[in-house]
Amino acid sequence: MAKKKTRVILVDDHPLFREGLKSVIAADPTFRVVAEAGDGTEALPFIDELAPDLVVTDLSMPGLDGMGLSLEIKKRAPQTRVMVVSMYADVSHLAAAFKAGADAYIVKESAAGRLLEAMARVMAGEKYIDPAMSSVLAEEMAGAGGSGGGYDLLTRREQQIMRLLVEGLEVAEIADRCFISPKTVENHRTRIMKKLGLKKEAQLVRYAARIGIIDLDLWR
């Protein structure tokens, strides 16, 4: 009798990246992609209908992001395992992902080489952290990488607003994307700056680059 395949749902707002993940997964006959979605909101009906074994998701997406999706999955389908594949290679995002219920965290640059191993280990009941993050974790444990600690003091909404601010979006654009008023965005920005001990927007950008939220070279 053939072994039952592990049913996987892919969630990422970049179709080409999803195609890349599908091609990697196709190399292992024990896994089967049963659905894919562009964000968490689009993925939820598939999760409710299909009760997949594993969801592979990005963190930063429009609408319901990866952390929000992880929380929903753990409420709706606690038996479903969650693997985050993210561009962020910093401790703050790693910790937030696991706090939201993720079972694994891989950096996108590593996905081609480590995805299948991570999926197999997660389905075997293990937690998995990308080995590419070992130096980052070592620095954090040694106290040399503590510059991102303040990020964990922010609420999930404040973290979302911060990411959009440092990506260069105007207040009105953020308000439209988050379905809140510009005044609420301004209030969030004020609280973010206060919690992080920053006074200028340029400091916020440098802080975001230091903890791995953005690539500062893209701003030059």
Describe the structure.
With about 220 residues, this protein is an alpha/beta fold. The chain has 2 domains: about 5-135, Rossmann fold (3-Layer(aba) Sandwich); about 145-215, Orthogonal Bundle (Arc Repressor Mutant, subunit A). The chain is built from 10 helices and 6 strands. A 6-stranded parallel sheet has the order 2-1-3-4-5-6, with helices on both faces. Helix 3 links the parallel strand 3 (about 55) and strand 4. Helix 1 packs across helix 5, helix 2 (about 40-50) runs parallel beside helix 3 and helix 7 packs across helix 9. The longest helix has 15 residues, at about 180-195. The chain is globular.
Q: Gap between N and C termini, in Å?
A: 59 Å
Tell me the CATH architecture of the largest domain.
3-Layer(aba) Sandwich
Note the main sheet: 6 strands, parallel
Backbone shape: globular
Instruction: Please state how the strands of the largest beta sheet are arranged side by side.
Output: 2-1-3-4-5-6
CATH 4th-level superfamily of the largest domain:
Response regulator
Helix content: 40-55%
Defining key terms:
single chain, 10 helices, 2 domains, globular, six-stranded parallel sheet, 220 residues, alpha/beta, Rossmann fold, 13% strand, Arc Repressor Mutant, subunit A
Summary, kept brief:
This protein is an alpha/beta fold. 49% of the residues lie in helices and 13% in strands.
Element layout with pairings:
Blueprint: E1 6-11, H1 15-25, E2 31-37, H2 40-50, E3 54-57, H3 66-76, E4 81-86, H4 91-99, E5 104-107, H5 111-123, E6 128-129, H6 134-142, H7 156-166, H8 171-178, H9 182-196, H10 201-210
Parallel strand pairs: 1-2, 1-3, 3-4, 4-5, 5-6
Helix pairs in contact: 1-5, 2-3, 7-9, 7-10, 8-9
